[in-house]
Design goal:
With 171 residues, this protein is an alpha+beta fold. The chain has helices at 61-72, 91-100, 116-120, 159-170, and strands spanning 2-9, 12-17, 31-33, 39-41, 49-54, 81-87, 106-110, 124-125, 130-131, 134-138, 144-149. A five-stranded mixed sheet has the order 7-6-5-10-11. It has a four-stranded antiparallel sheet with strand order 1-2-8-9. The longest helix is centred in the middle third of the chain and has 12 residues, at 61-72. The termini are far apart.
């Protein structure tokens, strides 16, 4: 499925591949790569609350600020929380970015090989082979509790709503 009017880049609509994920439904499993090129799936984070952020590239100003904010704020909430950032960046670039920017609470994964996450979570910008900016909050049972597909790719997500959704689950 392709959604053509859901997001824009600098006001210009782009098509997203895959279905939109809905709160209240099970989170789809996915395959991404870690920094060592090992395959990781959603099941790796079993029994954890998860905030998954899809971003176009860590090496852009909005993504940089976004990962820093979640690294600082969400990481203080609970040991039962996994903060996961997924982009099309190569695993080596993600590892370098996290090292250079002291990102320790956030785990980064690459969807560059198969675009599996992008397709299953409806964030794949097909013509650019990038991921749209989105936030998914998933509970310990892998039920989606909160989603945000950021309408304008160059805009920030609603940090407060995502953090509030996390706090509600972690009560």
């Amino acid at each position: 499925m392709e959604r053509k009017t859901e997001i824009t880049i600098k006001g210009n609509p782009v098509a997203l591949g895959g279905d939109r994920i809905q709160a209240g439904r099970p989170a789809p499993d996915f395959k991404v790569l870690d920094a060592d090129l090992k395959e990781v799936t959603l099941s790796k984070f079993k029994n954890k609350v998860k905030l998954i952020a899809s971003v176009p590239s860590l090496d852009t100003p909005i993504c940089d600020l976004q990962i820093r904010r979640f690294n600082d704020e969400a990481s203080k909430l609970s040991r039962d929380l996994e903060i996961i950032f997924i982009s099309m960046d190569l695993p080596f670039a993600q590892k370098r970015f996290c090292h250079d920017n002291n990102i320790k609470a956030v785990k980064t994964f690459s969807d560059h090989r198969e675009a599996d996450f992008g397709s299953k979570y409806g964030v794949l910008i097909k013509e650019l082979r990038l991921l749209a900016r989105a936030i998914f909050v998933i509970d310990r049972n892998n039920m989606v509790k909160y989603t945000e597909y950021v309408k304008e790719l160059t805009s920030h997500p609603d940090y407060e709503s995502a953090l509030n959704a996390l706090k509600e689950i972690l009560k």
